[in-house]
Input
Amino acid sequence: MDSSRIQALQRRIRLVAGLFILGLVLSGATAIPLQWELETVARIAGVDDLSSGHAVTDLSRWILKVRDALRDTNTRYPFVAYGFDWLAFGHFVIAILFVGALRDPVRNRSLFRSGMIACVLVVPYAIVFGGMRGIPFYWRLVDCSFGLFGFVPLWCCHRWTGEVARLSLPAPNL
Output
């Protein structure tokens, strides 16, 4: 048993899992003030409305279209924003579940596997449902990137927990 290697792997797993949890929390938190965020992005980009000469890129037009839709929806139907609140809640709950992987990564190794499956499923989900909802393809690729950015650290943690488990096995009696 190589205890220094095990300790190094456990520190690495906890660091990467902690960053993953932080990403989930931040991602969830950004779903709540979405209209304010889009107002801020439009202001920083220097685009006020679709008729301004500054809204020349597809991305700036998309940001303004989404911002205007949120303005209208939040004014006329503020309860729809409750769905974003629940989206944030889902992120927070998943982050809480991953705390188990921080506490005992080997025992909770299945969390990493389940997370990887969810990350892979982001791609067809974003492509299919984004297409059905009229989301531009380039923005669906941005959504797909969350699956990739989530998969890589989870795959590393899954691999490292397997190594910790193997290194922790007692030596066979010969």
